[in-house]
Structure formats: structure tokens, C-alpha cells
Amino acid sequence: MTDRRFTDKPELYPEGVRALPAGHAALVGNRTLFPSTVVDVDAKFEGRLLVSGENNRKLGRMVAKGAFKGYALYGLSLEERATCPEDCSVRDICYGNGMQMARRHRIVDPEYFYVCLEDEIRELTTGGAGLLVRLHVLGDFPSVDYVAFWSDMLAEHATLAVYGYTHRKTKAWGGDEIGEAIQSLKDAYPDRFRIRWSSDVYREDGAMVIDETPRQPTTADGAIVCPAQTDATACCASCGLCWEPNARHASIAFIKHGPKSDEAAAAAAMRSFEVEEAESAVAIVAAAPKAKVITDAAVQPPSTPSRAVIPLSLPSSVKPAIIAGDVPKARLVRPTDLRVEPVYQRDLSAKSMKLIRKIVSGWDWAKFKPPVCAETKDGLFVIDGQHTAIAAASHPAIREIPVLVVTATHLERRAGAFVAHNRDRVAMSEFQIFHAEVAAGVDDAGNLLALAKSVGATIPRSPPRRGAAKPGDVLAVNQLRKSYRAHGASVVGRVLRIAVMARQAPLDRLVARATVMLLTLDAFKDVAKMPDSAIANGLMAVKDMQGAATAFAEESGQGRDRAAAVLIAAQCRESSKRSAA
Ligand code: SF4
User: Is 63 in the pocket of ligand 1 (CB under 6 A)?
Assistant: First the structure.
């Protein structure tokens, strides 16, 4: 009875569900993400509106138990967001964002739509056959007329029943006429019009979306978790909770589902971290002593903001590995007792020499990472930490170093571990290094941050998503640090002020380098003498800077940065001539 063409279920990982970013075309346009799947229902329409639950992994073909046992289960899809209330709280995470294959129906000719739908209902209830319609697989009740249609159908077809959810609300809940009409129909057919109120809060006869996968069949506030999602039952046809009278009092909780991304998962993880703010800790970090050796033992510094390491809930597809090998053991050894296997280890390069020199000249146990070594019959082989070990051996004051000894008797295992140590890591972005160096008291980092703040610019902790940068956001962090070291605070301060005035969102590397050129190269001496506002106006006057700089660079044979500087200078000079005239 509950047979379905597709029985696999989407992976449960609510933390990873990604929302459409603010300003997304589907949100602004109040439409589906997949416009090509929308079918207009007008006189030319020939398809079927109701789709058997057999084609839907969640519904099932026929109700297996309860009040509507033996009823055929069908679903109707309209267009999500287009038919839904604009204050729906899950517009950006609608599970329709993950249904690119579903067919959506647009009611272009309502009369024709109602005729078609009634024909199908009449056909499916022929001979007193039971029909349970899921409203709506996608979309919501678009109008009072539409609700009235269902009222007529329920009146006419005694073996018709409807179940589903709506984000419409009665006026008492801040809703509208449509919500009122739905309430009246619920009152008129309490057992056959089983539409639940979708809500952010627990409510009687409600439905809510939850951000986590509960370990219990109910949530903390008593909502019943949809058993089809947790595999406690196959599908709606074998469940019936949403329409059965005995569950009317409760809310049904749906675990958030839809397209996922690790970015969303990371954001959810960060939200789950509680940062224990110490009193004025942020100020204390900013005031941290500048770039000198800190002797931890001396005085206990004030607390700093920190967050506990907590377990994250991972997608159900992640099966934790069976732990192999012994826990690593720490051991003190002479660095010269260590050996390196060239078959998988890197040969020393120019970069290696630079790093070893840096470690030796700046030896600091707080920056020391114990090499990971494997004990073999031929000695202790360094799997990770060759440069550190060589630096230690090269530092006259270092007699012994702590290493971590792991079990890796076979070469393949050592080589595999070497690759994992060096490949499976999250590289630091220039933004993360910058803010960490601010906390470490590194001069140019702290000064640049203060400079940026003083002119209303922002150096974000991670690169803003494409199109999400705000005016004054700085993308060219490393470029500005380089310019700061080369030209000092006055030039970089002007670059930042000009970028803020020109509402650069963000200040990217091209504009940063071009502006530095305008302020430092002889060829632009006249422009450098102009007020920042004039240069900002010149900058804003260059439309599509990236494209214009590329085209002019090709045309003039100059580099893009200089080409951009020339374009801005031309605008500045032009407008200064006009104002002089
Ligand atoms: S609670 Fe039951 S009837 Fe409701 S959606 Fe889940 S499986 Fe379907």
C-alpha cells in the first residue's frame, strides 16, 4: 500500500542546510529557484494536477492505517514563495530549494484550474473511493477563492480528505483573510480538512521546522518528530500522524532539510559555540603588548574570549572510523636521533631554508609543534615536522625536543600519514592571519586595523561572499599591509578614506594598488595633491573598473593596476578642469 518509486531518504543534516542569501533573485522575485519547472494552468494545459504519492518518497501510494485506511494518497504542487505569505519564516530555506525535478503549477486561469482539479477529484473518488490530498507538496494557499474551492470539493465528495500545512495565519496570529478562511474550513471539516499551522513556535495542530536531529521521538517542548524523517516509519501512508485526530493536539516537528553546504554547517557550528566573554576582554586583546617575548610565568594576564570545544552533529552519512593503532606517546629525544625517509618526505627547498632560519632565529616553545614520529627497527622516522626537527638540531641551545611517537611500522602507513598531515588541513586565509597577528600584537597589523576603523573601513574576519560585501569592506588586506610597510600610514590612510568615500564594496586589490600608485608615483603628482573626495569622485566615475582596466591595459600595453590608475586620474583631471572653468 505504501509503495513508492523512490525509497531512499535525504540525509538528515539540518546544520548543513544552506539558506538563500538575502537579496537572492528567488527571494526578491518571490518565486521558485527553478522557474523552468513551473507549468501554467490555462486553457492550453493538458497535464494532470494531482500526482500519486507513489511518485513521492515521503507520501506513499495508499494510506495503510487509521481514519483514511485504503485512501489513495495524492499530492498537489503550486509554486513555492509565489503562493506563500511573504512573512513565511522559512522562505530562504524552503525545502523546495532542493526539488529541481518537481513540477509546479501556476494558476493562470483559475476557473480552468478548478475545473481540471475537480475532474481529477471526481475521477479518483469514483464509486466512493477514498482520496487523501496532500496540500501542498510545494507552495501554499494563494487566495480565499482557492480555499473556497476546497470547501466546495469537501462538500461534494464525502470520501475526499485533505492534509498538509500552511504558513498562512488567522488575524489573531497576525495573518489575513486567507488564514481566516482556512480556519473556517478547519472548523467546518475538522476530520477531513487536516491543515496544520506552520509556525516557529509550538502550537496545537501545528507544524514546525527544527534545526537539529533530536535523539528522542519528541522535541524538548513536546512536538512529535516526523517519524518518516527518522526512519521510524516508511512514509506518510504508513504514519498518518499529521491527520489522525489523536495527534491533533500536538505540533509535528520537521527536521530542517534541503540543499546543504559546509559553509552553512560551519556557520551553524559557530552559532552553537558559546563564546564566554570575559569582562572587557576584547579591549585587553587590542591593548596586548607589542611583539615582545611574553613570559607566561610572570603575571597572569586577564582572561580572553574563548569557546569550549564541543562535539558537532555530523551528517548521518559520516560513519566514525574504528580507531586503529595506539594513542601517540610523547617522548623527549635528541633531534639528531631522528631520521627522514626521502621516499615520501620533501627535499629541502629555498622555502625550507627560509622557514628553518625563521624557526631558529625566533625559537619559541609556544610556536613549537612536536614532530610526529614512527618507531621502527631502523630508528625514529619523522612523519611530520622535518623542518622543526632540523631547526632544533641547528639551534645550539636545543638539546632535546618532545616528539609524538605513533605506531606506523609499515612504509605505506607512514607515507599515508605524511600526506594526511600535510594535505588534510584548513589553510589560513589572509584575513585570519591578519586578525591573529593583531591579537599577537604584530605592529603593522594592529596599526592597519586601527587606521581602517578610524576612517570607517572594515577588515572582515573572512572574505565576504560574492555580492555581499558592504561599502568600506577591505578585501585587499595583504596589499594594504605591503603598502603600509612601503609607504606608511598616511598613504594607506588616504587609500582607505578614498575607498570609503567612493563606497567601494569591497576595496579590492586592483583599486587598492591603483590608488597607491595615484598617491605615490610622480606621473600622478597632480592627482595626489587633490582632496580625497575629488579622487573618490574620479574613482566612482570609472564604470566597471575591472572590465575598463583590463580593456585599457590591453589597449595601452600597461599593467591593469596602472591602467586603472590612469583611468581614475583622467576622471579627476577632467572634473578638476570643469570646476576650474
Ligand atoms: S508525521 Fe507522519 S503523516 Fe506527518 S509528514 Fe511525517 S510521516 Fe507524514
Answer: no
Ligand 1 atom with least separation from CA of 240: 3
Within the chain, which residue ranges are assigned CATH 3.90.1530.10?
329-421
Q: What length is written for the chain?
A: 581
SS3 percent helix, strand, coil of the chain, rounded to 5, is 40, 15, 45
Q: Residue 434: CB partners within 8 Å, gap ≥ 6?
A: 445, 448, 449, 459, 477, 481
CA 276 to ligand 1 centroid distance, Å = 40
Q: What is the pTM of this model?
A: 0.70
Q: List, for residues 309-339, the tens digit of each pLDDT value.
A: 888 888 878 889 998 888 999 999 999 999 9
Residue 82 in contact with residue 37, Cβ under 8 Å? no
pLDDT at residue number 274: 64
Q: Is the CB of 228 under 6 A from ligand 1?
A: yes
- Between CA 539 and CA 502 the distance in angstroms is 7
Provide the 3-class DSSP secondary structure of residue 418.
helix
- Tens digits of per-residue pLDDT, 498-533? 999 999 999 999 999 999 999 999 999 999 999 999
CA atoms within 13 A on the CB side of 138: 30
DSSP for residue 37 = G
Q: Which fold has domain 329-421?
A: 3.90.1530
